[in-house]
Amino acid sequence: DRLSWSNLAILADSRLSKHGAVRLVSCCGDNDRWIQAAELTVLELPVRLCATHFTHIKSSSGVRARQLQAEQLANNSQPPAFGLTILGGDLNATLGQPELDVLCKFSDRIPPEICDVKRSLLATGSGAATDVVIDHLFLSRGRDAPAISLARQFTALDTPVGPAGEFASDHAAVVADLHF
Questions:
Q1: Would you list the DSSP string of 154-170?
Q2: What 8-state DSSP symbol labels residue 71?
Q3: CA distance 119 to 135
Q4: I need a surface site. Which of 20, 69, 124, 160 has the fewest CB within 10 A?
Q5: Closest alpha carbon to 174 in 124, 125, 120
Q6: Closest by CA position to 24, among listed 48, 39, 44, 8
Q7: pTM of the model
Q8: Separation CA 105–CA 163 (nearest Å)
């Protein structure tokens, strides 16, 4: 059984009741894009977690592909009747871009203090960074689902490694521990 798709990870201290993946629409040879989904119970509440990484292609084809990928994410992220769904990842689009419209209509974006930390890192290891928020978390609540608050937040993978001083990614990872 494959436990990771497209380098996505879902970490939980509760047993997963369901786990799987959906291949996202591809764009211009960028074929390895997935939604990884897991269902679990937290404090007797059914929770669905969905992690993804949308295409990075910047052309109009990339915009259309991200719109379709967002629709796929919304369609695969319906909350349990009395539970909640948390979805997110590197969506390669900022709020206000048309790619994210369907997700903004489908769910509430988790408050900005949780996910508005974004650093784009140059692969050369120069340490140059720009502030662009393309990693997002969204929440869809079923009936009587509790509120969510931020327990802690930090960045990871933001230190150059190896003899060439390269970064593990083109940007730092945003890690958020949520409390509900």
A1: EEES-S-BTTTTB-SSS
A2: H
A3: 10
A4: 124
A5: 120
A6: 8
A7: 0.76
A8: 46
